[in-house]
Design goal:
The complex is a heterodimer of chains A (about 200) and B (about 220). In chain A, about 30% of the residues lie in helices and about 25% in strands. Chain A is built from seven helices and nine strands. In chain A, the strands form two sheets. In chain A, strands 6-7-8-3-9 form a five-stranded parallel sheet, with helices on both faces. In chain A, strand 7, helix 7 and strand 8 form a beta-alpha-beta unit. The longest helix of chain A has 16 residues. Chain A starts with a strand and ends with a strand. Chain B has about 220 residues and is an all-alpha fold. Chain B has one domain. Chain B contains nine helices and no strands. The longest helix of chain B is centred in the middle third of the chain and has 30 residues. Chain B starts with a helix and ends with a helix. In chain B, about 45% of the residues are buried. The chains are: A alpha/beta (about 200), B mainly alpha (about 220). At the A-B interface, helix 2 and helix 3 of A face helix 1 and helix 5 of B.
Chain lengths: ~200, ~220
């Protein structure tokens, strides 16, 4: 289970947040909210292990994530706001390569099926640079259909998506939660996701 | 895993051929400028050749260092690499290898042709090519450390040359030294052994150092 205790984040000489505590159980979703610049992305990057908290500890199944590294990385999927799709590669290549990097090698057929499911059928072979913002986001989100990771850390996954895509993401998240997965996400959109436990972490 | 990253970077290079060709043309033009400016004095050209070709190779391989991680940094794929359960050092090694295939190998293949402009004898051409073959991977490996350290900095391009060029000096000395030694009729195996040793040391340490620098730069 994911647990954060007394987390403090300092950027430059500014303290973004302090004394952040939470614990997330299987099947639980945690929504991180707060105004722009309150440290939501910084918190998510900390949870991934990309940056270290100034003070405090994040643990996964009782062990600090710093001591797990590779083991922890194979349990999480992080989709940041930058996306992580190469403009010059096609949607299919992007998905296959990013899945391979995150430890699950998939065949071309699997990748094509996932893209079909996420609503990019017929556009798998286009370079990502010619796709629209929403379609680019879908290419990135297609990774959620492939990995078998337990903890999803999603930074604004719903930005640029149309209503049908938002509905689809909601469905994917709910299925993941029903299977005992965990989700930590930030979003400014109102979305109601059914989960065993729902908690909100408000950053000020 | 290693092959996935190489495949990815080669695919990207294929889609952006201008980047690859810029490096190669830079090398060809710099090497060709010297005979034009110095004049057709065969003896002088023969003496200059190894140094000129090697310096041009250093500069050409440095030209493309900035792109090694920066595009991945900007579109978020580098973040994904850092979060990969595979060892980051292996990923970095794959990236450096792909960088060498794209920028180093064309230089190695072009060098004998350019050597003819300097009237190098056949065996000197052979030694020149072999020394570049051993030396250019070291340039990519050491360059990766510099590229990782200057990631996301303003004016990183200039900084990377200040960081990396001093580290290239030993490779330059023994690379061009091998050709000079062979032209002078001395043995060049010592130079090659040293270049090989540099290559092994950088193969072991550079990916690790690059991985640590990337983690620091991304924090």
């Amino acid at each position: 289970m994911l647990k954060g205790s007394n987390l403090v984040c300092v950027r430059g000489d500014r303290r973004l947040f302090k004394d952040v505590n939470f614990s997330l159980e299987a099947g639980g979703i945690m929504r991180v909210t707060g105004p722009n610049g309150s440290g939501k992305t910084s918190l998510l990057r900390m949870l991934c292990g990309l940056s270290k908290p100034e003070y405090g500890e994040i643990s996964w199944h009782g062990k600090p994530i710093g001591s797990l590294s590779g083991e922890y990385f194979s349990d999480i999927t992080y989709l940041g706001h930058l996306g992580g799709a190469k403009d010059d590669l096609t949607a299919l290549e992007n998905l296959r390569i990013s899945s391979a990097l995150s430890g699950t090698e998939i065949t071309e057929q699997d990748a094509a099926d996932a893209l079909q499911h996420i609503g990019l059928g017929g556009r798998q072979l286009l370079p990502v640079k010619v796709l629209s913002q929403g379609q680019k986001k879908r290419v990135v989100l297609a990774r959620l259909l492939i990995g078998k990771t337990k903890l999803w850390i999603l930074d604004e996954p719903l930005v640029a998506l149309d209503t049908s895509a938002v509905g689809m993401i909601k469905e994917i998240l709910e299925r993941h939660l029903a299977q005992g997965g965990m989700v930590v996400m930030t979003t400014h959109q109102e979305i109601d996701i059914a989960a065993v436990t729902t908690q909100q972490l408000q950053l000020v | 895993m290693f092959f996935w990253i190489i495949r990815r970077d080669l695919l990207l290079a294929m889609r952006r051929q201008s980047d690859v060709l810029t490096t190669l043309f830079f090398f060809v033009i710099v090497v060709s400028l010297f005979p034009l400016s110095v004049g057709p004095e065969m003896n002088m050209l023969r003496i200059m050749a190894p140094g000129v070709v090697w310096v041009a190779a250093l500069l050409a391989s440095m030209l493309s260092l900035g792109r090694m991680f920066s595009s991945d940094y900007l579109d978020g794929t580098l973040e994904q690499m850092l979060l990969s359960p595979h060892s980051l050092s292996m990923l970095v090694l794959g990236k450096a290898f792909a960088h060498w295939l794209v920028t180093g190998v064309p230089l190695v293949l072009m060098a004998p042709v350019l050597g003819i402009q300097y009237d190098l004898p056949a065996d000197a051409l052979y030694v020149l090519t072999a020394s570049l073959l051993l030396g250019t991977p070291i340039l990519s490996l050491i360059g990766a450390i510099g590229a990782a350290l200057t990631l996301g900095l303003r004016g990183g391009g200039v900084l990377v040359s200040l960081l990396v060029l001093p580290l290239y000096i030993p490779v330059l000395i023994f690379g061009s030294g091998a050709v000079e030694a062979s032209s002078a009729g001395l043995g060049y195996s010592a130079h090659f052994s040293l270049l090989g040793a540099f290559l092994l040391v950088s193969l072991v340490f550079a990916p690790w150092a690059t991985a640590s620098s990337l983690r620091i730069s991304m924090e």
